[in-house]
Amino acid sequence: MSRTNRKITIPVSIGYGLTDIMGGGAFTVIGAWLLFFYTTFVGLSPVEAASIVAIARIVDAIVSLFMGSFTDHFYKNALGKRFGRRRFFLLIGAPLMLVYTLLWVTGMSFWFYLAVYLAFEVIAAMVLIPWETLPSEMTKDFNSRTKLSTCRMFLSASGTFLATFIPGLLISHFGEHDPHAYFINGVVFSVIFMLCVFISWKVTWERELTPEMQAELESHRQPTSFMEKVVAVGRLFKEYYSTLKVRAFRKHLAIYLFSFTAKDVYNTVFVFFCVYCLNVSSSLSGTLLSMSIVGLPVTLLAGVAIIKYGPSRLYVFAYTSMLLCLAGLFMVYQFPNR
Hints:
The protein is an all-alpha fold and 338 residues long. It has helices at 10-17, 19-42, 46-72, 78-83, 87-96, 110-132, 134-138, 142-174, 180-203, 211-217, 226-242, 247-277, 282-289, 295-309, 311-334. It folds into 2 domains: 10-207, Growth Hormone, Chain: A (Up-down Bundle); 247-334, no CATH class. The chain is built from 15 helices and no strands. The radius of gyration is 22 Å and the shape is globular. Pfam families: MFS_2.
C-alpha cells in the first residue's frame, strides 16, 4: 500500500498535532514571561532583554526563508534517504527541545541568554517548517488533511492554555520572588515539548519520492560556485517580493502582521501592566492569562461562524470585541477602586 493511501485516523491526527503544543506553547510562555523573568530575576535591563527577542526574530526570519528549500532537497543525502527529508528534523529536534530549559536559568550573562534564545529559535524553525508540510505528504485527501489541521489547531489552543496556566500555579506555589518557579516551568515544558515532537515523528510518514518528483526537484540545477549561490539567493528574494504585487495578498499579509504583532505586544506587556500598573501579583497575572482557555470552544465556534456569516463579519466582530476589551483594561487602570 502506498504511504499516501494510509488512513488518517484520530490518533494519527492527534499525534501529528501534538507538535503544535510546542509551537503554540513555547512562544506563549516566552511572550508572557521571558522579559519579566530577565528584568526581574536575571538583572538585564529592559533594553537588553528586548534586544534578545528582537535579534532572535530577525534570525528566525532569515532561517525560515531557507529552511523549506533545504528540506526539499534533503532527500539527496544518506540521512534524508533513511529518515525522510521532513521527519528527520523532528527526530533530531525532539531531544533538542531540552535547550528550552536553559532560557530560565539565572546568573548568566547577556550573551549566554542571547545565544540560547537564538539556538531555540533555530531549533523551533527547524522542527516546525518541515512538520507543517507533512499533511500534504501523508495524504492527498482534502477531508483527511482537514482532520489533521483541526486537531493541530485544537492542540495549539490547548498548548496556549497550558503555557499560561502552569506558570501561574508554579509562581503561586513557590512565591512571587523565587526564580525556581520559572526554571521548573522551563523543565516541565521542555519535557512536554520533547515528547510531543517525538510522538509526531513516530506516528507520521512521508510519501515516496517517485522518479517524476525527483526529476521535478532536480530540474533546477543547484548552484555550486559562490557567485551562483549569491545569484540564487537574489532570485529567491525576488520571487518573494513578487508576491507583494498581488493586492489580496498584501491585504492578508497586513492583517496577519498587525494582528500577530499586536498579540505579541499584548502578551509581552500584560504581566508588566498587571504588576506595575494594577499592583497585583504576578501569579494573578498568570491566572488572568490562563483565561485563554476560552480559545478552545471559540476555535470550534469560529469554524461554524465563518461558514455561516463569512470572514468579513467575523473579522468585524472579533476586532470590535478586542478593542472593547482593551478599553475595559484602560478603564480598570484609570479607575482601580471602582
